[in-house]
Every structure is written in C-alpha cells, then in structure tokens.
Amino acid sequence: MKTLRLTVKTTGLFLLALVVWIPIIMIVNGSFMGSDELSRNTGPILRDTAAMADWSFLPLYPTLKSYVELLFDSPGFFVMFWNSCLQVIPSLLGQLLTALPAAWAFARFDFKGKKLLFTMYILLMILPFQVTMVSSYLVLFKLHLTGTPLAIILPNLFSAFPVFIMVKFFRDIPKSLIEAAKLDGAGEGYIFFKIGIPLGSSGIFSALLLDFLEYWNAVEQPLTFLSQKKNLWPLSLYLPAISAENAGIAFTASVVTMALSLLLFLYGQRYLEQGIAASGLKG
C-alpha cells in the first residue's frame, strides 16, 4: 500500500513537472523545425485561420537552418545581445559598490533610524515597477537620461533587493569572529574585506544571480525608458519584433536567450536556492 501511494505521488509530480517543461520542450523542438513544418504547425494560430494547429514531439526533418540564419545572418540579434550586456553587467558591478556597504552597515552596525531606513528599503523592494514607473520616468527625463543606457543602469544600481538578500547572509556571520578580529587589531575595513565579503560570498553571488535573471529578461523598463531609441533595445525585446514569417528564428532566439540564463542557473543553483530561501520568494 505504501509502495502504491509512493508510485501515485511520484507519477503525479512527474506529470506536473512535465506540464512545466512542455513550453521549453516546444521551444527547443521548434528551433530545429524547417520553415514549412513550422508554417504548417503554427500557421493557424499566427495567421488566425480556421484550421487546427498541430505540433509533433520531434521535428519531422530536423534542420539547423534557423540557427545558421540567426547566428550568421542576423546582425540585429548581436546588437541587441550587446545592448543587454551593456545594460546588465554595469548594473551588477555597480551594485557591488552600492549594495555591499549598505548591506554590511545594516547587518553589523546599530545607528539611529536603522529600522525605519531598512523598512523603507523593503517597501521599495516590494513595490512593482508599474507603481514607480511614472516617477522614475520623470526623474530620468529631468536628468536628460531617457533614451540612454543610463536610464536602465542608474535605477538598477540602487536596487533595494540585493541589499535585502546580503543583509540576511551578513547577519549569519558569528559576532564572536568579528570580536576576535577586533581584539587582534583589525580595523572595520579589514573586517569587511577579509571576513565579511568571503563569508558572505554566497549571499553576494545569489543576489547578483537573481538580479541578472531579472535584468536579462526585463521588458517593461527598456520599453518605457528607451521607447524612442530602438537601437538601444536589449535582447529581451527581440522576440516581439518577430513575425509569423520567421517563426523559426523566434524559437531559435528563445533558445539562445535562454541558454545563458540556464547555464548560470546550473552553475549557481546552490547559491540561487539560498538566495530564494533568504528572501522568502517562491518559484
């Protein structure tokens, strides 16, 4: 009876996992389909015809044509890929300069207004982009930064989310270790760089990884702040520009876009899980 219950539970979880994986399987599968097969399968949906859409588990005639066309004959793809790197990497590096000291200060020091200030950080973190969009746009417009990469980078530099994550990890550093270092004559700077950062590296990496996934897939920010500068659009806005006639490139671009995030996820899965557990996020 126990074995049967376990089998039913395992089968149920497998089916649920399969439902999650179906879109990813379809994307990878579609990237290897020929244009005729894709047109036949997706035509009724993309062209809004009365026929029924169809999809096969494996391509009838697998081909790398879409990959060749995307990687060797689509310069716009690489421009947007570079735009993504230009907006995401400086944002993450800048967060090391702003979020790290802020998180260390919240975790290790007591000062007047600390609880109120940290509460404001949390409020800023939980506010969705739609709420702050208008005020952010007005500030950036007043600073003449709309339509430039700084319109994306600057708000990300002062994100409250990495501070919140890193504080959790810095607080776990034993106070006795800090006190022992002080007794040995270590200054605050030495303790921060030689003890705080190495022991809090899991939190730092998980915060940067979570932020990378968010910024790499950002759609609303670039659409709002770079609406008049399509030459600065990141890779996350490449897919909506693809029509039914080149659906193969859409599937291939999805695979290539997803690949970098997937590699980082596999490399830093342990840190990512720790960061999600520390932040209380789900999914």
Number of helices: 14
Radius of gyration (Å): 24 Å
Helix content: over 70%
Q: Which structural category fits the helices and strands?
A: mainly alpha
The count of β-strands is: 0
CATH topology of the largest domain: MetI-like fold
- The name of the CATH superfamily of the largest domain reads MetI-like
Give the overall silhouette. Answer: globular
What is the CATH architecture term of the largest domain? Orthogonal Bundle
Percent of residues in beta strands:
under 5%
Q: Major sheet, described briefly? A: none
Output the CATH class name of the largest domain.
Answer: Mainly Alpha
What is the chain-wise order of helices and strands?
A: HHHHHHHHHHHHHH
Mean pLDDT equals 84
What low-confidence regions span 5 or more consecutive residues with pLDDT below 50?
none
Whole-Å distance between the termini? 32 Å
What does this structure look like?
There is one protein chain. This protein is mostly helical and 283 residues long. It folds into two domains: 1-62, no CATH class; 72-279, MetI-like fold. The chain is built from 14 helices and no strands. It has helices at residues 2-31, 35-46, 65-73, 75-108, 114-126, 129-142, 150-157, 161-171, 175-183, 188-199, 201-216, 220-225, 247-267, 269-279. Helix 1 (2-31) packs across helix 13 (247-267), helix 3 (65-73) packs across helix 13 and helix 11 crosses helix 14 (269-279). It starts with a helix and ends with a helix. The model has no long low-confidence stretch (mean pLDDT 84).
